[in-house]
Write a structure and sequence with these properties.
With about 100 residues, the chain is mainly β.
Length: about 100
């Protein structure tokens, strides 16, 4: 993931689920803000990859990075036979540097 700054839009969060997602019915990224608020975001498979590769991504929108500090992201994948979470990734959202 590229460096993230307060109020960034379009920052890509990419996670490896370590699973084949071919049978997945829901693919999400859970993002926990420094305040503890948890956002649930619909993820997509990055361009050039397939569901079998197990990688997912999300591009931030307005309001996602509205707090400075430590964020956590975690994959959440649901299929007809499973519902599991991936490893947690931690990253910093920094204030503007002038």
């Amino acid at each position: 993931m590229a460096k993230a700054y307060l109020n960034d839009i379009g920052t890509i969060i990419e996670l490896d689920t370590l699973s084949d997602l071919t049978d997945a019915t829901d693919i999400e990224i859970l993002i926990k803000k420094p305040s503890g608020t948890i956002m649930t975001k619909t993820a997509y498979v990055p361009v050039g990859l397939t569901l079998g590769d197990g990688k997912i991504a999300y591009a931030t929108v307005d309001g996602d990075f509205d707090e400075e500090g430590t964020y956590k992201a975690q994959a959440h994948v649901v299929s007809a036979i499973s519902d599991h979470l991936g490893n947690t990734v931690t990253f910093e959202v920094k204030g503007p540097y002038l």
